[in-house]
Amino acid sequence: MGAGASTCAVRYTAGPYESGATHARTTPMTPDLPKTEIAVIEMTNAFRKEHALSPVKADPKLTAAARAYAKLLATTGKFTHEADGKKPHQRAEAQGYRFCFVAENLAVDSNRAGFTDKGLAQEFLSGWKKSDVHRANLLMAGATDIGIGVAKVPDHPGQYVSVQMLARPESQRIAFTIENKAGFPVEYRITGKGRTLGENKSVTYRSCNPVALTFPAGARVEYEPGNGEFFIVRAAGSDRVIVDRK
What we know:
The protein is 26% helix and 28% strand. With 246 residues, the chain is an alpha+beta fold. 35% of the residues are buried.
């Protein structure tokens, strides 16, 4: 099983403050954390939809892992992906999630005025979208599940930590086979990378993410292999091939 990328974001925002002005003590707005978590999922899926990607669904095991880690980060003041001595995929696995890959985004946001539920969620998403590595996690094509944890930092009014886990379970690993019956070596490409399969040879690929499969000597067709599929390549002339998909 492979673990996905682990990245983090640290972002702070502050409410307006006028130099020399007298400010009465006010209680910061307090967001409902479960509602904030739901809003993060909704905004993540809206962003994925903009990029023609399938939505992710909340997974209780990932949610438990994300919430526990958010609480640990908030209470210890640490802000790394291994503050508990474990990697993100190990925390998911400890909750019983059998993974194909796991990716994690972290964020911390602060505002003396506090946040609304959706306002805090938007701050988290805004920061992740602006970072290449976090954005890549949000837009992982193979992600199917998500877990969100949001925790308030004690003794720091208006400060919150978020842990976002995006994953695909082991049960949805993609495996497909290419079999060469053309009578000569066949070139093919897996998501743009060229390879050659020898005469009368076969090869099985396993992937946690969707892949694009093409055969330069065949029809101009781009395949997206499904789990358990076979692609049998046969000759269609001296240097051309046809592909039977089963």
